[in-house]
Amino acid sequence: MARESKTKYILLGMLAIKNCSGYDIKQMIDVNVGYFWQESNGQIYPTLKKLEECKLIERIEEDRDSTREKKIYTITLEGKRIFQNWVEEDEYILSIRNEFLLKLTFGTNLTVRKNIERLKKYKRGVSEKKTILESMKSRLGLEEQTDQHIYWYIQLDSGILMSQAMSEWCDLSISRLEKLGG
Amino acid sequence: MARESKTKYILLGMLAIKNCSGYDIKQMIDVNVGYFWQESNGQIYPTLKKLEECKLIERIEEDRDSTREKKIYTITLEGKRIFQNWVEEDEYILSIRNEFLLKLTFGTNLTVRKNIERLKKYKRGVSEKKTILESMKSRLGLEEQTDQHIYWYIQLDSGILMSQAMSEWCDLSISRLEKLGG
DNA sequence: CCAGGCATGTAATCTGTTACATGATTTA
DNA sequence: TAAATCATGTAACAGATTACATGCCTGG
Description:
Two copies of one chain form a homodimer. In chain A, 65% of the residues lie in helices and 7% in strands. By secondary structure, chain A is mainly α. A two-stranded antiparallel ribbon of chain A has the order 1-2. The first copy, chain A, starts with 6 loop residues before the first helix and ends with a helix. Chain A binds a DNA duplex through helix 2 and helix 3.
């Protein structure tokens, strides 16, 4: 049966914030919530099509500026209803697959030195992401404080705090392994 | 093409630690690495079958105690080789889908009070998991310190630190929302 | 005796990724 | 002019979940 896809809800949610194209949505997802939610184009475009067929979203005329082909969508009342129902449900799926942690768990099959290197590299990646999130947060702080903003703020903080914790964990783990004789 | 399934590697990895059954493996995954890796029975059993066909694992006689049907597997040399190759590859997939954070991002569609409630509930869940991980860690500390142990120790710490950070983030977010007038 | 855990497994079905195709426009 | 980015989309294919089936054993 494969559980119900949540893709439609994130698309509706983004369109509830503002009218945009599939490409815009993909950007917004990658940039803003990419650290806890991913969608591929292979999901986005077909889902947009289906949503339009079901009249949960509609195409509008992109009034301006595009010589480029760009399909701008807007959410319908029915779309908002469906979206709202989903937001109100107090249940959440959580799926994670972190292959880095998995390989580290089996770290005994590698030299200590190699594991330390990996942790250092991983930490660099985590720190970069944290920096990006922090700059997004400060940019958000400069803009006007709408109701929407507070939740984006909170959500960004979760990413920042997680990155921070991950980074500290890397240091801790590195020093543990170094004591072992790296 | 759908990316290569990693299921076989975690099964091989568990069998590299000790001989066990599909049921045992499922338990080990849920309990030990469940917070960053999940597998369902619908993946585990068919994969075990395939691995046996490819001679990467073998059935052994469960010497004792079971009136119950239980198929114990052991990893073969070829299986170890395949597993080792995977561990040595310095590349990792990471996929996360946290529907809680997603709904919170769209929190403006709910009352502030409701979002606070959700955060409190979420925090309880996070704290429970943290407690479990901590008890696992102290249990691990009591057992003999093998080479394997240090990596499980480190891996557990990542879960504990993440839970801790998440928990703090919940508090922070709750107080932010309360200031808004919850 | 019955609920729940132990234990294995399959079928149905959808989900989701990758890789590719296409073409315009911008930038170096 | 070549590479990168904008922009939409599809096909192929495997991945993965859920739900169910089966049956034994244990504890209350």
